[in-house]
Amino acid sequence: MKGTLSSWADILNAIPQGSVLGPILFAIFINDLPNLFSSTANLFADDMKLFHAAQTIEDHHVMQQDLDNLVKWSHKCQLDFNETKCKSFHLGSSN
Q: CA–CA separation, 58 vs 86, rounded Å?
């Protein structure tokens, strides 16, 4: 058996290569993201929610710093965001 090779065979049904491994590798790749933030970050597959209760001007600065850290991370990891899908949601008064 040593040095013997198996023969080629057609595969009629299978999972396309990478369809299982790809999402796992992506999850590992972005796993450090929540550690970058003072705000709360939730990861959902290829989506992330970042939120912070902002009651003072310092709280607004914290959120902005977290967003800046996110942009730095994306440039460092060469993983650009789809800006058309990025949204902001504000609850409360604008005072």
A: 23
Could you give the residue ranges of the DSSP H alpha helices within 1-95? 21-29, 57-76
Q: How far apart are CA 70 and CA 11, in angstroms?
A: 43
Is 40 strand, coil or helix?
strand
- DSSP one-letter string for 52-70: ----SHHHHHHHHHHHHHH
Q: What is the residue type of 37?
A: F
C-alpha dihedral, 85 to 81 to 66 to 95, nearest 10°: -30
Give the number of other CB atoms < 10 A from CB of residue 25. Answer: 11
pLDDT tens for 55-86 read 899 999 999 999 999 999 999 988 888 888 88
What's the whole-model pTM score? 0.68
